[in-house]
Amino acid sequence: MAAVASQLVQDMASGSAEHGAEDALTALINLVRVDLEECNRVIVAKMDSPVALIPQLAAHIVAAGGKRLRPLLTLAAAKLCGYPSANRRHIDLAACVEFIHTATLLHDDVVDESLLRRGLASANAVFGNKASVLVGDFLFARAFELMVQDGSLHVLDILSKASATISEGEVLQLVTQNDLATTEARYLDVIMGKTAALFAAACQVGAVVAEQPLRQELALAEYGMKLGIAFQMVDDALDYAADQATLGKTVGDDFREGKITLPVLVAFHAGSDPEKQFWRRTIEALEQTDADLDEAMRLIAHHGGIDATMDRARRYAQEARDALMIFPDSPVRQALIAVSDYTVQRAR
Prior knowledge:
Blueprint: H1 2-17, H2 23-31, H3 33-46, H4 53-63, H5 69-80, H6 89-112, E1 116-117, E2 120-121, H7 123-127, H8 129-150, H9 153-176, H10 184-209, H11 214-238, H12 244-247, H13 253-257, H14 262-270, H15 273-284, H16 292-302, H17 305-323, H18 331-345
Antiparallel strand pairs: 1-2
Helix pairs in contact: 1-2, 1-3, 2-18, 3-6, 4-8, 5-6, 5-10, 6-8, 6-9, 6-10, 8-9, 9-10, 10-11, 11-17, 14-16, 14-17, 17-18
């Protein structure tokens, strides 16, 4: 088990080092390496079950890779706030955060009928929808076990509310799907819920275990929220600008599902009447031909949809950096600042 946890950390660091934009993530991993290895040991242990399909499916999604960014944020936030590494609360809560995230991935892939996750076959494609949903439920239950074991009602409040907010964000995305009347503010509500809320909670609990004043706790929550918004905006841009190997999922999934994202909203509102009709046919009516994705990408590029989305992502990344300025300078603060840069540099 220890060898598995250590190998996961090595894989994460080596994968990050392959790209210059990810040097920041490698630096953060190195700063919390011992804690991250212990966190991975908790994850591996808690995935175990006498029901063989559960660890098999859970191992499949873990083997697909991933940067463990959310638990990394919990470990780094605790370290930034001076929490002793010899204590365990931040480690167990980082594992809890990863279980919440992984459970939502399993459920999302079923809802979205995704066939790829991080470039490999998704769990639902391999094991089926029923198994993916049920193992997702199992991982949510493990997350709540870890919350209860921590014993802090404040921690339980933060992480349970984040879990509810994620579900609300996903349902809101379902409600706005295929609806080009969706405003940019409504789109922001969706990504704050489905993505940024867990980033914020992951950072905030790091301050809570270190018993930091409310000002520091809220600053870390703000950092996580703005980082998460930037992260999702970049993902939404990449769906219309990346190749499949870079994206780790099928390019154009958002288009095929009729999801309302910022690149589409920018192109739709700037488009001519015939272009608006194109978007209404393909997004609202979901009447799509094989050539329509290329046309959608052309229109988004023509009207600056990717640039506009990336500009907003950079603004939120800057606000994330600003939120850390109340903390004394340190290698961890520098690494967290660099991670906000990495978030937007993924699109290069």
